[in-house]
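Progress note, project year one: complex with DQA.
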Amino acid sequence: MTRVFVLNGPNLSRLGSREPDVYGRLTYADLVARCEAEGARLGFEVDVRQTDDEAELVHWLHEAADSSVPVVLNPAAFTHYSYSVRDACAQLTAPLIEVHLSNPAAREEFRHTSVVAAVSTGTIAGFGMDSYVLALQALALRPPA
Ligand code: DQA
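Model obtained:
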């Protein structure tokens, strides 16, 4: 069974209570359940993780690179400024889908830049938790690495 990492950056554990007008009322536990259910439907073994720590996220990306595991990544605020996350993404050896719950292009100007986009296979943003479902479906459409 193909393993897939679904990696989440800072503050995403706060879904449900965090800015519900932007991110909705569904919780991080709901997100994990959604990804696991869609992953199972597609035949993936999905490993969903969240961290507020840049170093931990970089280490998970190294793990994915070393094992050729495809990654769905919501880098959260790291999207906009973390060159270490970007450089770790550049080392990946299987597809990388950048995802966002909101549509950063329609929000504050600092969110319009993604330092990760240029090293991603593609980006899906603006569909709430469906962004993750669509990303898993995009991975399922790609030939195995
Ligand atoms: C986000 C968008 C980012 O700008 C923000 O910093 C986040 C969440 C999203 O999923 O919409 O934390 O990545």
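Residues 11, 74, 76-77, 79, 100-102, 104, 111 surround DQA (CB under 6 Å).
The helical segments are 20-23, 28-42, 54-67, 83-89, 130-141.
No further modelling is planned for this target in the current period.
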